[in-house]
Design brief:
Number of helices: 7
CATH topology of the largest domain: Trna Endonuclease, Chain: A, domain 1
Shape: globular
Largest sheet: 5 strands, mixed
Radius of gyration: 22 Å
Strand content: 15-25%
Number of domains: 2
Bound molecules: zinc ion
Distance between the termini: 33 Å
Helix content: 25-40%
């Protein structure tokens, strides 16, 4: 499963030593953990879901307001809106308040309710016959929860995911697939990376050199027309290495195109 662009961007910041605050490091950890949880759910889905269910991952849309969905499982008359949370510790839900490890947290159940309302309106433009069912999945291995207030959606712990997927009803191939696809595309919003915009002075501080595209090691040897990784032996053509570095500099300094010079590319 592909990583989202925000995570790829943070990995790049990390490799260049540019995650220079506790908040950025925390954000990176949250993104990475979220991705690991979603990738794990996707592997369960592929292994256990019946054939012909169509899956969309990380779908962002705007229908009377913006919303993002981790997974959309689509069949002819039944759609599942799946939110995957990869938390650790203990969650409690009482009197409209979510706490995790006794700290107040955003109300993830209400957030999912809001997304469901928007998705239902969107789906009604495809067909009035489709039912949308929201599901909250807690995939963290070291995680427990107490729901003193009952959320409006089904909540599935890690141990019941396989059962849920196995029991999905078998479906015939999607009849109105093209229409569904067109509608989802019509309301889809482009992915927006939240940049950590560095000032030009930060250039001296970021880690220089080139790293392996395969394993990220900086232990690389430059040959005439390619670069060989000392850690994993991966070979990459020099022009790809240079264009990767240019892409990184643009991402690190989106407001300062003057940083992108030949001299800086070779540092
Ligand atoms: Zn390597």
């Amino acid at each position: 499963m592909e990583k989202n662009e925000q995570l790829i961007y943070f990995e790049m910041l990390d490799l260049r030593g540019a995650l220079d605050t506790k908040e950025l490091q925390r954000e990176f950890t949250t993104l990475r953990k979220g991705y690991e949880g979603e990738a794990l759910f996707y592997s369960y889905f592929k292994a256990h879901a019946p054939q012909n269910w169509v899956v969309y991952y990380d779908y962002s849309f705007d229908f009377d307001g913006k919303a993002q969905i981790d997974f959309l499982l689509v069949s002819n008359q039944l759609w599942y809106l799946i939110e995957v949370k990869n938390y650790s510790g203990h969650l409690d839900y009482t009197d409209n308040t979510v706490t995790i490890n006794n700290k107040i947290y955003q109300n993830i159940f209400r957030d999912l309710d809001n997304r469901t309302v928007r998705l239902k309106r969107l789906v009604a433009t495809v067909s009035r016959q489709i039912t949308v069912t929201p599901i909250m999945i807690f995939i963290g291995a070291d995680f427990t929860y107490t729901l003193n207030q009952k959320p409006s959606m089904t909540v599935i712990p890690r141990t019941a995911i396989k059962h849920f997927l196995t029991k999905l009803p078998p479906v015939t191939p999607l009849l109105n697939y093209q229409q569904t696809q067109n509608t989802l595309n019509k309301y889809k919003t482009p992915y927006q990376i939240k940049y950590h915009r560095l000032e030009p002075e930060a250039f001296v501080k970021i880690r220089k050199g080139i790293h392996c595209a395969n394993c990220s090691s900086y232990n690389v040897e430059r040959m005439r027309s390619c670069v060989r990784c000392g850690a994993c032996s991966h070979l990459e053509r020099l022009e790809f290495v240079i264009s990767r570095k240019a892409f990184e500099l643009i991402g690190l300094f989106p407001d300062h195109p003057e940083i992108l010079t030949v001299a800086n590319l070779h540092q």
